[in-house]
Amino acid sequence: MTATKKIRETYNDTQDRIIQYLKTGLGKGKHYFKSKYIAKELGLSPKEVGTNMAILSQMCKELAIIKWSYSNSTTWMVTPRGA
Fold this sequence. Notes:
- The protein has 83 residues and is of the alpha+beta class.
- The protein has a single domain, classed as Arc Repressor Mutant, subunit A (Orthogonal Bundle).
- It has helices at residues 3-10, 13-27, 35-42, 46-59; strands at 32-34, 63-70, 74-80.
- The chain has a three-stranded antiparallel sheet.
- Helix 2 crosses helix 4 and helix 3 crosses helix 4.
- The mean pLDDT is 89.
């Protein structure tokens, strides 16, 4: 089973889009992400992003997602698991 297929079976469409966004950001060297910017890029509401990030922080096996701070929007620290 491919990694993409496994992700699609585990997460809903919104969560899958967020994970792909985070992985792309990690590939560019980013580790901190604000909910409002993720929302803007993906056409979601910041609240929708925050709710799904909280869920992903508990269930995502490949990324460590930690609620980091709040100033104008929640900031999340994201790293690959095991890093």
